[in-house]
Amino acid sequence: MGTTPLLEGLPPNGRERLLAFAHEVTIPEGDRIFEEGRAADQFWIIRTGSVNLDVRLAGRRPAVVDVLGPGDLLGWSWLVPPYRWRMGAEAFTLVRAHVFDATGVRALCEADPVLGLAVTRRVLDVVARRLSATRHRLIDPGGAGASRQPAPP
Length: 153
Prior knowledge:
This protein has 153 residues and is an alpha+beta fold. It is built from three helices and eight strands.
């Protein structure tokens, strides 16, 4: 497995301890990975492929707000109570990823506050970057960030 910001610079054995809660999965193109509002009990680190993050708008198709690819963390709602997805996700292409048991990772982080703080800081960094990217897309929908989004069907 390649490196990802979530797994970099952790306390000793932190990476290995987190990976103990993971296994490899393949997600077919077009499969819904999770739905906004449902229980967030897993998260993924994408190895190959791309995933659309989306939000539901009343009476319309989900709107894509970000596209994730290799090395990206998919899902952060598992770390923030009430542990419900704040967005939805769909495989835009065939995806290979490591899926993590969020309940186990949360328990590990509680038992080891140093590791827990390191994981929380990395996840918070992901949330901050995604918020910034989403704000830029809202301000300039046709700008540089738009080129990563797939064309509408």
